[in-house]
Amino acid sequence: MIFLIVLVVVSALAVAYSSHLNRQSFIALKQAVSLHTELEITQGKLLLEQSAWTSPAVIESYAENQLGMHVPNAAQVVIVSPAPFVSPDSSMAGAHRSVQKSRMNTRQAKRGIQ
């Protein structure tokens, strides 16, 4: 009989302890869900701010007002085109071709191509 009373008391204590752990877990879950919601709101705000800062109008305004930059007028624009390469003597052009051919053969050998 005493054994059954001890079992009932131990069982009651186990139920109380289990309920306590369940409440603690539930509180931790609620905090995690709350943090998740808060972080989603922050992410949305940051994405909105990023899209606002990457707008071309905002970038142009910042460049003009903060950096003192401006769009050049037609007189300030200079178009540079590369001059065609002319070898001073033809022997150098032949030497250049042989160096290129030897480099190509080396690359092909490394790859196993014949």
Annotation keywords:
single chain, 114 residues, mainly alpha, 0% strand, elongated
SSE inventory with pairings:
Blueprint: H1 2-53, H2 56-65, H3 90-111
Structure notes:
- 0% of the residues are buried.
- It is built from 3 helices and no strands.
- The chain has a domain at 1-71.
- The protein is elongated and about 115 Å long.
- The mean pLDDT is 84.
- The termini are far apart.
- Helix content is 74%, strand content 0%.
- The longest helix has 52 residues, at 2-53.
- It has helices at 2-53, 56-65, 90-111.
- By secondary structure, it is mainly alpha-helical.
Question: What integer value in Å does the Rg equal?
Answer: 39 Å
State which percent range the strand residues make up.
under 5%
Secondary-structure class:
mainly alpha
Detail the poorly predicted runs.
none
**What is the H/E string?**
HHH
What composes the largest sheet? none
State the total count of DSSP E strands: 0
What is the arithmetic mean of pLDDT?
A: 84
Q: Span from first to last CA? A: 96 Å
How many helices? 3
